[in-house]
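Budget justification note: compute hours in this period were largely spent on complex prediction jobs such as the one shown. Inputs:
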Amino acid sequence: MKAQKTRSQEKIFHLLKTLARSLSAQDLYVELRRRKQTIGLATVYRSLEALKLQGVVQVRTLPSGESLYSLVQQDQHHLTCVHCGQSIPIDECPVHDLEERLEQSHHFKVYYHTLEFFGLCDRCHSLHREPLSN
Ligand SMILES: [Zn+2]
Ligand SMILES: [Zn+2]
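Corresponding output:
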């Protein structure tokens, strides 16, 4: 099943592909405007929702509640610091094989998976540790 993308969806798809990172709808809106592409914020949200249903775009939700969108092909996981909010990308995907097994055993077409690690980054960890250690 292949749904036809609208022009707005195409623009957002190409922008996500070009930037190759996760962005919020607001960031995408700003980037599009910088590129002289006039798409309203409501249309950005609607297009992202449609692309998500097509299995093209995936969403990550940060501890702040902000949603970040990226293309599904980017099987990328992160270590996210709950204190300063920085996300550190990691290169490996430990569930890649599991995904293939599940597709076969459950006859389920997996579009994407999410896997997030939350905690304290090195810098925040040392800041937090000091008051406890004396
Ligand atoms: Zn941190
Ligand atoms: Zn993965």
